[in-house]
Design goal:
The protein has 246 residues and is an alpha+beta fold. Among the domains are: 74 residues, lambda repressor-like DNA-binding domains (434 Repressor (Amino-terminal Domain), Orthogonal Bundle); 82 residues, no CATH class. 50% of the residues lie in helices and 20% in strands. It is built from 10 helices and 8 strands. The protein has a 4-stranded antiparallel beta sheet, with no helix packed on it. Strands 3-2-5-8 form a 4-stranded antiparallel beta sheet. Strand 2 and strand 3 form a beta hairpin. Helix 4 runs antiparallel to helix 5. The longest helix is centred in the middle third of the chain and has 44 residues.
């Protein structure tokens, strides 16, 4: 029995329609039909096709690992082509693409580093007027020094007191994510179901989720729920203006 037949037979045995499965799994019915008919070209990429298959198999009570292995045998990665000439071409082209990616990453890291240095310089530059020689001179007449220091000490905390805290809780499936706080990469990797992480920033937090339907999000204690559907890639940015003070 083929992979698609196993899925269709298990669904029909439960008396479910594709629309009912879509409501339960949040996977579009056209993708479910493509899995049952093994029309993998209709799916949005091999990674998402495999993720949809595992979710569908788990919902039907089938062995998702075994079906994933069958999928790999039916639809192997492009690099494992059996034709020798294309394989050589791929071997020659891969280093070029990898070099291009590395160049882009180096440029992006350089931009982020320069941005961080500039931000640190601006903060130091903004805090420098706190210790001019004039402050010591003004402190000599006691009556005048008690009037001048309070405005300087009160104005500075207001600039740094605002911040945002983002909490990510992986609920029902694993998820790859990337978090950038104030222009710096704070985390990039995969979390399993049941894991959670919190991030804090003074200006902005940029979030990218590879499986938005598996991650519950809260901002400054406010529950935002799920930012997308299972298997959906979502990018969001949060700022102090929309998040409030932390």
């Amino acid at each position: 029995m083929s992979l698609g037949e196993k899925l269709r037979e298990a669904r029909e045995a439960k008396g479910l329609s594709l629309e009912e499965v879509t409501k339960a799994t949040k996977i579009r019915s056209k993708y479910l039909r493509a899995l049952e008919e093994e029309n993998f070209d209709l799916l949005p990429g091999r990674v998402y096709a495999k993720a949809f298959l595992r979710t569908y198999a788990r919902f039907l009570g089938l062995d998702e690992i075994q079906l994933a292995q069958e999928f790999d045998s039916i639809c192997p990665p492009p690099a494992e082509s059996g034709h020798q000439p294309p394989a050589r071409l791929l071997e020659e082209e891969e280093p070029v693409s990898l070099k291009g990616l590395r160049t882009i990453l180096v440029v992006l890291l350089a931009i982020v580093l320069l941005f961080g240095i500039n931000q640190a310089y601006q903060r130091l530059k903004g805090s420098a007027p706190e210790r001019p020689p004039q402050v010591e001179e003004v402190q000599k007449p006691l009556a005048k020094t008690t009037e001048t220091p309070p405005p300087t000490t009160e104005s500075q905390p207001s600039a740094t007191s605002k911040s945002i805290t983002l909490k990510l809780s992986v609920t029902n499936d694993r998820c790859w994510m990337r978090v950038v706080t104030d222009g710096m990469v704070a985390f990039e990797g995969e979390l399993q179901a049941g894991q959670e992480k919190s991030f804090r920033a003074n200006h902005t937090i940029q979030l990218r989720l590879g499986n938005a339907g598996a991650v519950a999000v809260s901002l400054n204690g406010k529950d935002l729920g799920y930012l997308g559907k299972p298997g959906e890639v979502v990018t969001r940015q949060f700022s102090v203006q929309e998040g409030g003070s932390g």
